[in-house]
Predict the structure of Argininosuccinate lyase.
Amino acid sequence: MHGALWGGRFASGPSEALAALSRSTHFDWRLAPHDVRASMAHARVLHAAGLLDDDQLARMLEVLGGIHDDVVSGALQPADDDEDVHGALERVLLERAGADLGGRLRAGRSRNDQIATLLRMHLRSEAGAIRAHLLELVEVLAATAEAHPTAAMPGRTHLQHAQPVLLAHHLLAHAWALLRDVERFRDWDARAALSPYGSGALAGSSLGLDPEAVAAELGFAGSVPNSIDGTASRDVAAEFAFVAAMVGVDLSRLAEEVVLWATKEFGFVALDDAFSTGSSIMPQKKNPDIAELARGKAGRLIGDLTGLLATLKALPLAYNRDLQEDKEPVFDAADTLLLLLPAFTGMVATLRFDTARLAELAPQGFSLATDVADHLVRLGVPFRDAHEAAGAAVRRCEELGCELDELPDADLAAIHPRLGETPEAADAVRAVLTVQGSIASRDARGGTAPVRVAEQLAELRAAATGL
Ligand code: ARG
């Protein structure tokens, strides 16, 4: 069957080496159900244009329906010498409908507009599935935040203790990032929702076929306005790969924290047995493999994106065979996320936080020093001086080996008069040196105060509902 779609002007078939290089059925066969659906839509516009009569259309749709069922059931598979999904399906169509009827379907279309359309159909459906998984993860983070409305933890910058925050606030920070990824897929879909069918090889069809009718039947919002762009552009694929890579990167940041949190040194979380692994030699081990695989797969997703961009770089218009290389990266990106997300969500849903340890660590590392400075600012001291004074208090604590709220009155007074000029002044400083007080004081919109975090949780869920 070699050269089945283009044998006419060739005296010989392709060499074995060329056929092997050219073949794409091992990865593009997953597009076969879309290809058959698009063929049905194409048959209808051929009929509308007077190129198939009523009987021919009915028979064509009947055969295509059977092919569709056999593709979906797995009964139909490409043959070794089929070049690509389009060639394989045409071969089967000719076998089942006969050469006269089967040979009419190719009029007015090219594999170039077919493949561009099928890829969009497939990626739109994959993006929908990924969005649903991401929303589940967002809800799991929201529910975990909701279950810990007042638990404090050490907030970090540079991985050093910075200021205490609510665990819920921290978890919701990850949820917002992931929700933006859901939005990105939604926004991407508006660009992916134009059908290139009818663009032909590059210049459009001369047979009076209606691209808008095909687009509508295939669930697109419309057809592309430019046939060259429709067949040659792959920014839709590249953008899909970017959003997938962004998801990978966002997951990897939470993953890295889970890896750290599950160490003896941090001791913030325990992983559920069903979502962690053991060691073949060390009986005591409980490893955060899901989080590590998430971290690793972020690299793979970035590779999918950069590989695809490298393929597209400097390609002249219109279609070039290089574009066959567009599929494996985006297929891999979607497969990777659809494999990773259920495990990742299960891991997050079953994390057990040691809230007592988190609370104990929250004030350590002098994480309330900013509260001392803010206290002085409220007493009218310029922040620059207040910052100096709070820093001096930390230095003194390090000398004495004590915490900020344990500094003697005399030391406070020596550091800044407003800190210790009277016993009442010193007590007022100690009053702000509590984790819950510090957290509650950050009560502007977006802050970690429990009242704001509760509002934030509702805002997140409302935003997620609209997606
Ligand atoms: N298999 C090709 C691809 O994936 C589509 C066919 C276009 N081939 C061609 N020689 N014009 O891009």
Q: What stands out?
A: Residues 24, 28, 84, 111-112, 115, 319, 321, 323-324 surround arginine (CB under 6 Å). The domain at 112-149+162-211+224-353 is CATH 1.20.200.10 (Fumarase C; Chain A, domain 2). The first helix runs from residue 16 to 22.
